[in-house]
Design brief:
MFS, Growth Hormone, Chain: A, mainly alpha
């Protein structure tokens, strides 16, 4: 059908237009700053433990405890945000997280290992769920679905910067001064970013959702479609989780120490570039279709590792899976919107994060077990991605109604205040 005067094509949404929307740049910058501890704390804990005489093994344990406790606490923090608002949850959590990280250098010389472990667990449990909080705000800050798509892609892709700049900053601070300073800066950045987010009008005016028996039922959230979506993301996380261990194993095999850091950095760079490319245009198909296609490409892009390439080729190869990760994560959140009842969005997003985190832990464990078997270790990322793809293929019928992402459209907002998009959807 030819276009009439009233059917002119919609103008292309640019990054400049999205970042120029009120609150968007501030929320992105604040969230990235507040999430820097995710890229810094695991490395800083290892360096601090080794520098204070506890050893590398104990440092690795502390790093794992931080990541696991952070992931496990996500759904509770998401539920609390849905009920009581973001500021009420984010600010106390960030304060406790920062205090716990600052406490470590003080108690290190006198504390027992159990006390140190408990402090690290407290730091992980109280790290604010800024990522889920930001994505819960996008529908009210950006009512236009096209602009929201661009913001989600930019948000997801920029996560790669956390795992490039975070470890680099920790290494620099440790070299110039000490790992204790790295922990202090980690705590300061987490608190500063949280304050930037929670003092913005969209986060400040987040309102408590009124209880509704039809909305509050756990069965509505934890349905089969949502559970399968989480399982697929666990497979994606499994593939990602193998990368750090495979990097170390390949570095030892090729006697190229830089390879252990180069592989994760290359993957993160691919994620960033993929986010820029994915958000730069509108792609055909539904969100669920894009999720399955992205997962298929993600699975195929791990196959070159089965050829056991050399250091340079391996570094180049792992960039490609990173490119498709942005497609998967962005499409998962948009699909999740259609699967989630009103009033449960923050909680739903945190379950997705928990699924990825659990998969990463399992992937790292499996890669460590098969580190001395190069071909098996190289096959693990493909196996995790294949699990994700198979799960999505089986779940496609259950995700059918997620083909209509505007089933619960959010209304436009004033500035300020920003009404709670969850209430508007109900």
């Amino acid at each position: 059908m030819p276009l009439t005067a009233t059917q002119a094509p919609a103008p292309r949404v640019t990054y400049r237009a999205v970042l120029g929307t009120p609150h968007v740049a501030r929320l992105l910058f604040g969230t990235l700053t507040g999430r820097m501890p995710q890229g810094m704390a695991p490395v800083a804990l290892v360096l601090w433990a080794t520098a204070t005489g506890y050893g590398l093994a104990f440092g690795g344990l502390l790093s794992a405890l931080y990541g696991i406790s952070f992931a496990l606490s996500q759904p509770l923090k998401g539920r609390l945000m849905d009920l009581y608002g973001q500021r009420t949850v984010h600010l106390p959590a960030a304060a406790l997280n920062s205090a716990s990280l600052l406490l470590l250098p003080l108690i290190g010389p006198i504390a027992t290992t159990k006390q140190i472990m408990a402090t690290v667990v407290m730091a992980g449990l109280t790290a604010p769920a800024l990522e889920a909080g930001l994505r819960a705000l996008w529908p009210s800050v950006l009512p236009d679905p096209r602009r929201r798509h661009v913001a989600l892609a930019l948000d997801t892709g920029s996560q790669g910067l956390l795992y490039i700049t975070g470890p680099l900053l920790v290494a620099t601070l440790t070299t110039l001064h000490s790992p204790a300073l790295a922990l202090m800066v980690t705590a300061a950045l987490g608190m500063a970013g949280t304050i930037i987010v929670t003092t913005s009008p969209p986060s400040r005016h987040w309102q408590r959702t009124q209880p509704d028996p039809t909305v509050e039922s756990p069965a509505r959230l934890l349905g089969a479609g949502f559970a399968l979506l989480c399982l697929s993301l666990a497979g994606v996380g499994f593939a990602i989780g193998t990368l750090n261990v495979l990097g170390v194993a390949m570095a030892e095999r090729h006697q190229a120490e830089m390879l252990s850091g180069a592989l994760p950095a290359a993957f993160a760079a691919g994620t960033f570039l993929g986010g820029l490319a994915y958000g730069a245009r509108t792609w055909p198909g539904t969100h669920t279709g894009q999720l399955i296609a992205g997962t298929a490409a993600f699975t195929a892009s791990w196959l070159p590792l089965l050829l056991l390439p050399g250091p340079s080729a391996a570094t180049a190869a792992v960039m490609l899976p990173g490119v498709f990760l942005t497609v998967i994560v962005t499409s998962s959140y948009l699909t999740c919107d259609a699967l989630t009842p009103p009033g449960r969005t923050s909680e739903a997003y945190t379950w997705l994060l928990l699924a990825i985190g659990a998969g990463q832990a399992a992937g790292a464990t499996a890669a460590g077990h098969y580190a001395n078997t190069p071909l098996t270790g190289a096959a693990l990322p493909t196996a995790g991605a294949a699990l994700a793809l198979t799960t999505l293929a089986l779940a496609r019928a259950r995700l059918a109604f997620a083909q209509h992402p505007t089933a619960f459209p959010p209304p436009p907002i004033g500035d300020p205040p920003c009404p709670n998009h969850q209430q508007s959807r109900s």
